[in-house]
Amino acid sequence: MSSDFESYEQDFAVLTADITGRIGKVPKLVGDEKKQMVANVEKQLEEARELLEQMELEVREIPPQSRGMYSSRMRSYKQEMGKLEADFKRSRIAYSDEVRNELLGDDGNSSENQLIKLREERAHLLDNTERLERSSRRLEAGYQIAVETEQIGQEMLENLSHDREKIQRARERLRETDANLGKSSRILTGMLRRIIQNRILIVVLAVIIIFTTVMAIYFSVKGR
C-alpha cells in the first residue's frame, strides 16, 4: 500500500511543479493564449485533485499504527493544493506590468480605473464560477452516495431474498422429514398391531390345542 502511495506522491509533486510554472505564466498572457493556458491549468488542477483522492484512499488502507505519518503528509498536500488554487485564482485576474501597459497604451492614467473595474468584475465572475463548481462537486458527491446507497440496498435485498429461499428450503425439508416420521410411525404401529394379533392367535391356538388334548385324554380314560 505504501508503495502505491509514494508513487502517487511522485506524480503529485511533478504535476504541482508544472502547475506552479504555468500559473506564473498566466498574468503575462492575453486573449486566446491566456484562455488556453487557463484551461490547461484547470485540467491539471482537476488531475491533482484526483491524485489527492487516490492518495487518501490509500491512506485509509494503511494499518492504524502506521497511518499517522501518511495522514500528516496528506494534510500538507491539501494545504499545497489550496495554495495552488488561490494562486491560480489571483493569476487569472492579474496582469504583468508589460501586459498592463500594452492594454492601457499611452492613456494609462485615464484607463486605470477601467482596468480596476474590469479586474473586480472578473474576480466576481470567478467567485461565482468557483461557487458553481463547488456546488456541482457536492451534487456529484451526493449523487455518488445515493448510487452507492442504492447498490448497498440492492445487495441487502438480494441477500434477504437468498436467506428467505434458504429458510423456505429448510421448511420444506422439515415438512418432508415430518411426513417421513409420520409414515414411519404408521408403519411401526401397523407392525405392532400385527405382532399383537399374531400373539393372540397363538394363545388362542394353544388354548384350543390344550383343550382338545385334555378332552381327548378325558374321553380316552372314561371309555376304559
Main beta sheet strand tally, sense and closure:
none
Helix content: over 70%
Query: Helical segment tally?
Result: 5
> What is the count of β-strands?
0
Helix-and-strand structural type: mainly alpha
What general outline do the C-alpha atoms trace? rod-shaped
Q: Quote the distance from N terminus to C terminus.
A: 119 Å
For the residues shown, what is the average pLDDT? 79
Set out the fold topology.
Blueprint: H1 2-25, H2 31-61, H3 64-93, H4 97-104, H5 108-223
Helix pairs in contact: 1-2, 1-3, 2-3, 3-5
Key words describing this protein structure:
single chain, 224 residues, mainly alpha, 93% helix, rod-shaped
Your description of this structure?
The chain is mainly α and 224 residues long. It is built from 5 helices and no strands. α1 packs antiparallel against α2, α1 runs parallel beside α3 and α2 packs antiparallel against α3. It is rod-shaped and about 160 Å long. The chain starts with a helix and ends with a helix. About 2% of the residues have low confidence.
Concise synopsis of the structure shown:
By secondary structure, this protein is an all-alpha fold. It is built from five helices and no strands.
